[in-house]
Amino acid sequence: MSSVAVLTPESFAEHRSGLGDQETRGGVPEDEAYIPTYLEAFPPLPEKGTPGDKSGEPIGAWSKIRPIKSSVITQVFHVPLEERRYKDNSQFGEGEEAKVCLDIMQKTGAHIELSLAKDQGLSIMVTGKLDSVMKARKEIVARLQTQASATVTIPKEHHRFVIGKNGEKLQELELKTATKINIPRPDDPSNQIKITGTKEGIEKSRHEILLISAEQDKRAVERINLEKVFHPFIAGAYNKVVQEIMQETGARINIPPPSINKDEIFITGEKEPVAQAGTRIRKIYEEKKRKTTTISVEVKKSQHKYIIGPKGNTLQEILDMTGVSVEMPSLESSSETIILRGEPDKLGPALTQVYAKAKSVMVAEVTAPAWLHRFIIGKKGQNIGRITQQLPKVHIEFTDGDEKITLEGPTEEVEIAQTQIQDIINDLLTRMDYTEITVEQKYHRHLIGKNGANINRIKEQYKVSVRIPPDNEKSNLIRIEGEPQGVQLAKKELLEMAVRMENERTKDLIIEQRLHRSIIGQKGEKIKEVRDKFPEVIINFPDPVQKSDIVQLRGPKNEVEKCGKFLQKVIADLIREETNTKIDLPTENSNSEVILITGKKANCEAARDRILAIQRELANIKEVDVLIPAKLHNSLIGAKGRLVRSLMEECGGVHIHFPSEGSGSDKVTIRGPVEEVEKARKQLLQLAEEKQINNCTVELHAKPEYHKFLIGRGGGNIRRVRDRTGARIIFPAADDRDQELITIVGKEEAIKQAHKELEILIKNLDNVIEDLMIVDPKYHRHFVARRGQVLREIAEEYGGVTVSFPRTGVQSDRVVLKGAKDCVEAAKRRIQEIIGDLEAQVTLECVIPQRFHRAVMGLKGSKVQQITRDYDVQIKFPERDESQGLDLHPQENGDLNSDLRETEHVPRKCDVIVISGRKEKCEGAREALLALVPVTVDVEVPFDLHRYIIGQKGSGIRKMMEEYEVNIAVPPPEHQSDLIKITGLAVNLERARAGILERVRELQAEQEDRALRGFKLIMSVDPKYHPKIIGRKGAVISQIRKDHDVNIQFPDKGDENQDMISITGYERNTESAKDAIMKIVADLEEMVSEDINLDHRVHARIIGGRGKAIRKIMEEFKVDIRFPPPGSDDPNRVTVTGLPEHVDNAIDHLLNLEEEYMMAIVESETMAAYMKPPSRLEEEPRGSTRGFVVRDAPWNAPGNKAPDVSSAEDFPMFGTVVTPRQASAWGPKKF
């Protein structure tokens, strides 16, 4: 990057004025201006340095940057012909090899290219990231190259080094060599490793494994058993001795820590270093064993931790200073005996240190109420933190629920800390208080609020702490702590909230489930706004799986009502958007029950129907309270709510609410549609009565695949058991964790009988037998066709029974069935039924022109599959005959049978659909197929309406096609045809035809309405009134347009008739809009305008920042004030417009302001004159200048000429000249 300096005559003169010592150089007199040379004025840029120069350092800096390696690599490898797995490809690139490569590319993300060499070998190029390439290479070798296998034998203890940490070494080796390596499990005595892959890969892998084993052969492991008590001497204080041995020998030594009671020391490494380390350790052991002796002392158990020190540091310190090891009893042991082991002359000093450490710490206790502890600690531990920072050796311990605070540390420091804590306690006791209130546990979560909103607000507002017990404590006691005044205020508010909640109510809103997502909004944003607006109301939406329309509101009565009305407005808005109408609900305080809907007639009727449907559903909702003893509630709810959930589902999704556990309430609430509520009430009371008489529940387990068989088709089996025994049998739901659990509920005798019957059924199902049956081979294909679909259905229906038919090519009629006895018998009966159907099977032909086959089949064959299931037949469509081309006789005007009659004489093979099954079912299927043949009818629609039928980007016609399930063809514009063709099923055509005609009527009504709205009225208004009619930012004219539903256009600046205003809309509306404008004009004509002279220097002050001051004056005096624009002939003239008395008052006010501001301006100008430097008071006129001149310029050389500064080619402009912005009368703009 280069820099350019711009030199002006002024800047050059300033520069030259500082060069006093150079003014007289070159023989130029001091009084004459110095003329610089061209090179002095414009020095050349330095030339690019050579690599060896220092000037080249910036370039060299780039060379230090390391090149970035590409993250994409390419590998090429070759598979010889004899090792290719697929050799019989008729055309290269289309066989299995290509499929395999495509699969590998999808799995790994690498790019693979195959090419065939002259020797028929396969060249493979893999491109991608390193990890992807390695994985792809391994897959290619395994799937495209024939695999060989070999074994390599290494010692069993070396296997773990081949596997590596978390198997990483093995994975790396497999990727690197593109082989599969199988290592025997640890419990397998074999030491052989099996390698599978290509010959080349096996050799590489074998070599790498042997290298790993050879490396481990060089290593040695030695275990030395030495008494645990001598380990501290071998390790040394702070492990100094053992680290020294490891540094000197290079071996690795592992001494078990004191907490592990093992004598074994491990030494690993090269053989010779291991031997040296072992010798050193044994020498230390022998020496210490010979020289050391022991003494025992008794020290209180509570003092042991001070002798041990943090992380055993004190023991290490004693060992380092005296060479004596201190053996402490374990913390779990009750022993107080400490053993000192060392040389006799060092035991004395060591014992002294032990006693000193034991007595160096003091334990003291301070008594304080438990509720005060957290205030003593302070916010984020501030109070206690100050003490511990000042006295870092003191440990302070608080115990939950205990009124004692324990201090531990050096005696002097503990005493100081004790005094400080006692002072804090005394201070807190004088200014802190607490109280306890009783609130039923069921209201606790409402007191807390969503995400703790309520309780956090109370804590913050009153500076108190509120402890609400968790649910598992089942306590009603709430504790409030803090300053006395805050505690009382918080108590009062919490009790008020509890009273409100006792008076709270629940309300159900009926909202169509499809609208729930719209109300909730993306990520719950919209419902969050509603909850923020009504924080005391809990809004519960039903689970989408329940398909329920009931939304529950719960909270204070008034808030619930307000929230309900707000949600009704939201629903109305949604209905308005869907139906394109305007819906006005009655105001909150109004007694009116009228809802006003405005819009097109059809849309209004649709919106009205939707609102009435919601009203009917609301009227149909009933809430009933049932009294059931609280002790029966748990048994009625059932394990994980199974029983009550099954009851709610059985009764049409009613909501059954039990009181919270521990409340003691007997009231159970049932809410939902009237009929379903009554049904649920009867069943609930019946169950409660059964429970009260003989409340018994039994559970048994059965494999999930048996459940279908136990339930039976349409629930027949289980219903028979229920009817015989009177017990209720509950099977697990899809989301239950234990899918085998079946629950039986009822009287003792009933559940015993039901349990016995189910056990017999399950036992029979568990009794697996194998049976044979004879099935004619000609029917085998029916059972195994379509990937054995018939056999799969039999297995699902009959408890997972396995049916095995002979393999293809084996001439046998024996079919083997395996499974539970009852299932096998039932499956045999089902197979016989199917064979009976096949024996009675006939084949019918159904002739439908080939062009309709796709429509008859439906999306992915859905329609024909449904017919196959409904009529239990097989339907086969012919192969498509492409040679037929387009049909010569297209079907028109609903002539369904024209093609069928033509084909009755000579049916084409490609038109014949074959149906196989029982005769009566085949005939029914044929009728169903013929009903699916699309028919075409013509509908006459005026050509000028076609574009409205089509809609924007085809949206209108697409919506109709989706709604009526037909195809609608509109003729192209150049045909100018009025006929629109509708093609589809006969049952849909009439609906579609009626829909289009209805749309035509709507469009014609819109055209008529548009013509009425197109009435145009022209009125003349003096242009000077136009700005007032328009208003500030168009406010006045916009209100007129809105009130009268018209469009008002003012003339453009260049128009001839500047006084003409056009009004477009309904005739009566244009007249009323004209009257409104004329009223404004009449008011304006009464106004007068007066000019006054205000010194232009005060204009900015009168206007104020962003015009605030002048707007205030205009609003106060009800006038319009105009200031002159910049550059005006008379900058002092200000125009005031308004009613005469208002204008006079405004002028008086403006003149007063001018007088006030002018005093300040004159004063500031006087001060500025005094502050002006003397040198600037009398400036001498400058003489003429010659401009900027240099000597020895290139253009002064012979043959050259000076550049033309006026030439645009020699001196091009860098951009347009920006004129300075003129100052606004409103003052400088602020941002």
From TrEMBL:
Localization of this protein: Cytoplasm
InterPro entries: KH_dom, KH_dom_type_1, KH_dom_type_1_sf, KH_Vigilin_N
Gene3D superfamilies referenced in this protein's UniProt entry, alphabetically: K Homology domain, type 1
GO molecular function per UniProt: mRNA binding
Region (Disordered): 1-28, 1189-1208
Alphabetized CDD domains for the sequence: KH-I_Vigilin_rpt1, KH-I_Vigilin_rpt10, KH-I_Vigilin_rpt11, KH-I_Vigilin_rpt12, KH-I_Vigilin_rpt13, KH-I_Vigilin_rpt14, KH-I_Vigilin_rpt15, KH-I_Vigilin_rpt2
K Homology domain span: 146-214, 218-286, 291-359, 360-426, 431-499, 503-572, 620-689, 694-763, 767-836, 840-934, 935-1001, 1013-1082, 1086-1155
Residue ranges the record marks as coiled coil: 744-771
Bias (Basic and acidic residues): 12-24
SMART domains according to UniProt: KH
Protein name per UniProt: Vigilin
Higher taxonomy: Eukaryota, Metazoa, Chordata, Craniata, Vertebrata
